[in-house]
Amino acid sequence: MTAYFIRRALFAVFVLWGAVTIVFLVLRLVPGDPAQLILGSDATQAEIAQLREQMGLNRPLAVQYGIYLGDVVRFDFGDSYRYHSDAMGLVTEKFPLTLQLAVVAMVIGLVLGVALGVLGALRVNRLADRIVSVFALLSQSMPSFWIGIMFILVFARQLHVLASGGHGGFDRLILPGVTLALPLVAVLIRLTRSGLLDVVHENYIQTARAKGLSERLVISQHAIRNALIPIVTVAGLEFGKLLGGAVIVETVFSWPGVGRLLIDSISARDYNVVQAAILLIAGGFVLINLVVDVLYGYLDPRIRLGR
Amino acid sequence: MDDPLLAVRDLTVRFRTRAGTVTAVDRVGFDLAEGETLAILGETGSGKSVTAQALMGLVPRPAGEVTGGRIVYAGTDLLTRPRSERRRLNGTDLAMVFQDPLSSLNPVFRVGAQIGELFRRRRGASRAEARRQAIELMDRVGIPAASRRVDDYPHQFSGGMRQRVMIAMAIALQPRVLIADEPTTALDVTVQAQVMALLAELKAEHRMAMILISHDLGVVAGVADRVMLMYAGRVVETGGLREVYETTGHPYTRGLMASIPALDGPRERLTPIKGSPPDLTRLSVSCPFQPRCDFATDVCGTERPELAPVPGRPGSHRAACHHAKEVAADVVPH
């Protein structure tokens, strides 16, 4: 067990290093000079060159990378060029808002996805199942930014029941939460439905029926627990995607989370903030994966004891 | 004579498959008296397991469907009763032990919970009471250290012990009919005998009637009162164990007997039944066994034989063969 966690921790470090490295390189390959952007279009070449030297941007890429990694290892993520404050501090300040959105979307996704998936499996190939399947197809194929804009048009502009954006009370969470949740709902509907349909053909379901248990008990006790195993895995991975996917939804709904900060920082070539944000999101992803593994063992005793 | 506990008449089960409709069970009928053991024998695909599923109301829907016949249990035709009412008979009146105990136990629940569930859900027992009864039952079916193993999961048990768990679940509510579908097929040979002995013992203890489904004539010989052979969804021969084993009335039964090695006789080459079981989607008017039969004549290709008393044998011994008399008299054909 200890060896397993050590292996997992080493792997996590490797993943974070990979994420940081890729972001570091991509940012510097993209055209656009932070010094130019900070000083504005009136700045002279000499002024820009001077600022580049101050920021260390004139040094070879490998040296910049080495210095950056050295800082990161000491938990120094650099300062924001724009706000002149600790980059990671800026990100962690916004993180609870993104987490809030992701958790709301996750809850909506799990409740709606699993419930509709069970409904589809119980009424397979009947009307309810078809409606659920069409809903899943639509939820999956409509892009978030478009759904978000439609929601704003209908619920904010036309019906005036919900605010179009910003953060505040619970009501402001509904539209971005649902928008973020819809693709997840679609995935979980499909997974629950097909998983349950597979499980229902297992021999132990026949055993449960031979015991004289009602069909309701057969499904809710014997089938669901087995169908949940793949659902937990996927839901965990999807939660990681929600943290990243919030970027679009936060922009559409002016939600001041990490996603918005990330987009703004990319536009401003605020390298350190972008790197810190990606590192945090990747870290969240790794952590969730670990939680999923532990949950997985709880749901499936064969895995728990095999390890 | 009293009414039998279970009387099956003209039971027909059809399956829709991509290749067409298959009649998996074709007008099967038999009686089962209290305390009696009936063995249903046949190759894979002969319809014996589907017959068991039909009795338990477990024919997989929507592909499969009982399309005709009657299953009269204790005076009631089960096929006329609503599904939920039939379901409630499972466990208390009709119970079943399945072939593969590993896949037939739910992998994510402790065995104690799976046995105890019967007492909790069907008898309203408390969690503690159900657990106590589960331990008692596990002890009864010969699982060592039952009070410790009650909290183990199915994959932590050996094959034989898993089948004992299945048997414990089947007898938990003291059913009147126990259906055992190839209960020893997935087990080691040494364990097979132990499990069969346990089944026979429990049957006597609880005065249960038993339907033992098998493809192995040897397994059946020790416990069955009567045997019924199925081929291509139909009953081809039925009678008392000795009647059928000593003087077979159907070439298929003969073939099955010839493919078993004898421990005492001279060492001979085993004779397998030639050919393979028929494709049930392409059955014609002919006798389904005709292509594999040494006794076949012209009539076998034009007329499907019905189950009838074997000439010169006790009335309970019946076979579906135009040449039953020759087969029984052991006349070498042609």
UniProtKB/TrEMBL annotation, chain A:
It is a multi-pass membrane protein. InterPro entries: BPD_transp_1_N, MetI-like, MetI-like_sf, Opp2B. Coiled coil: none annotated. Signal peptide: none annotated. Residues 95-292 form the ABC transmembrane type-1 domain. The chain crosses the membrane at residues 9-30, 97-119, 131-153, 173-191, 227-253, 273-299. GO terms for molecular function: nickel cation transmembrane transporter activity. The keyword Transport applies. The keyword Transmembrane helix applies. It holds the Pfam family BPD_transp_1_N. It comes from the Bacteria. Gene3D superfamilies: MetI-like (1.10.3720.10). Belongs to the binding-protein-dependent transport system permease family. OppBC subfamily. This is Nickel import system permease protein NikB. It comes from Nonomuraea fuscirosea.
TrEMBL record, chain B:
Residues 8-257 form the ABC transporter domain. InterPro entries: AAA+_ATPase, ABC_Ni/Peptide_Import, ABC_transporter-like_ATP-bd, ABC_transporter-like_CS, Oligopep_ABC_C, P-loop_NTPase. GO terms for molecular function: ATP binding; ATP hydrolysis activity. It holds the Pfam family ABC_tran. GO terms for cellular component: plasma membrane. It is a peripheral membrane protein. It comes from the Bacteria. GO terms for biological process: peptide transport. Keywords: ATP-binding, Cell membrane, Membrane, Nucleotide-binding, Transport. Gene3D superfamilies: P-loop containing nucleotide triphosphate hydrolases (3.40.50.300). The keyword Cell cycle does not apply. SUPFAM superfamilies: P-loop containing nucleoside triphosphate hydrolases (SSF52540). It is found in: Cell membrane. Belongs to the ABC transporter superfamily. This is Peptide/nickel transport system ATP-binding protein/oligopeptide transport system ATP-binding protein.
